[in-house]
Amino acid sequence: MAKIDAFFKLMHEQGASDLHLISGQPPALRIRGEMERVKYKVLTDDDLRSMLYEITPEEKVKVFEETGDVDFGYEIPELARYRANFFMQKYGIGAVFREIPSEILTVQQLGLPSIVGKLASLPRGLILVTGPTGSGKSTTLAAIVDEANKTRKDHIITIEDPIEFVHQSQSCIVNHREVGLHTKSFQAALRGALREDPDIILVGEMRDLETTSLAITAASTGHLVFGTMHTPSAPKTVDRIIEIFPATEQAQIRSTLSDGLRAILAQVLFKRIDIKGRVAALEILIANSAVRNLIRESKTHQIPSMIQTGKRYGMQLLDDAIMDLYNKGMISADDAYLKANDKSIFRPLLRTPPTDFTEA
């Protein structure tokens, strides 16, 4: 057993989402969204480097020592998988590990709206799950892919950096590809995937122009494509995609995106106050014909109004979802205010409303 495994077991026992190991500091865990120190000695650069390198593939050590950054996956059988990121900082090496549970929770177990599970049955198109780092995007995507894996008879390819949730082939055939290990890049894997008879493609992150362009093309040519972006709302997601492209190509990509887009789920994660755990609030945009016209005509500022009037399609605004969680007694007013898009809705709920200089 590797020396670091003891920290992973502690992490699992405490229900932590992340483990932080930083030279010059004692270890820390993120539990229910908050950082908590572990009662352990301050880690020196030499000791931590030795501990980390014990579990690091040789080629990843080489990449790290050349660049100062590296990502990879680590697994403890019958416990969990971990997404590892190493980086250099002022006092030496640092590492953050995100726990990826071995059990994939269903849409129902996660308490997500039923429309989320139905997205797994779509024959083609682009579905994006967006939100800040640590908002549960991977967990939501895993639930949707798991639903497809159980109910369809298709070929699923995932392209990730690194592989997170591992799906065992059920009714579908599932192939996992890790960037840097099984393929050179997201772009290379996506180009290859189109020749590998896929029905469903999961792209871990749409982080650049070429990856985004290939994903949209795949969605427009008969494939169901899932992807993630770090955007806070459905309208901003559409705008971000368009802005990636040169101005001369934006009119064309608006047309292509409007045809291929099927849904955007923008989510944030909250610490629950009724029980131990966390809960997600989702903004849900379903790309019906009216929404596609808004995208095509560069009127994304009207999308919130379209979501508001599209509840019969399963659409909901993020602030409505947050208010619903607050009314159910699941989250605090302070948290609701902090993570809402329109803070004025939640300000009257606060006992002592803060002075927010960003709204001046």
Structure description:
The chain is an alpha/beta fold. The chain folds into 2 domains: 5-101, Beta-Lactamase; 107-345, P-loop containing nucleotide triphosphate hydrolases (Rossmann fold). It has helices spanning 5-14, 45-53, 58-67, 107-110, 114-118, 137-151, 186-193, 209-220, 234-244, 250-260, 289-296, 303-308, 318-327, 333-339, and strands at 16-22, 28-31, 34-37, 69-76, 80-89, 92-101, 125-130, 155-160, 173-178, 200-203, 224-229, 261-271, 278-286. The strands form 2 sheets. Strands 9-8-10-11-7-12-13 form a 7-stranded mixed sheet, sandwiched between helices. Strands 3-2-1-6-5-4 form a 6-stranded antiparallel sheet, with helices on one face. Helix 7 runs parallel beside helix 8 and helix 8 packs across helix 10. The protein is globular. It starts with a helix and ends in a 21-residue tail after the last helix. The mean pLDDT is 94.
CATH top level of the largest domain is Alpha Beta
- The secondary structure category is alpha/beta
Number of helices: 14
Q: What name goes with the CATH superfamily of the largest domain?
A: P-loop containing nucleotide triphosphate hydrolases
SSE string? HEEEHHEEEHHEHEEHEHEHHEEHHHH
Q: What labels would you give this structure?
A:
35% helix; single chain; six-stranded antiparallel beta sheet; Rossmann fold; 360 residues; 25% strand; 14 helices; alpha/beta; 2 domains; Beta-Lactamase; seven-stranded mixed beta sheet
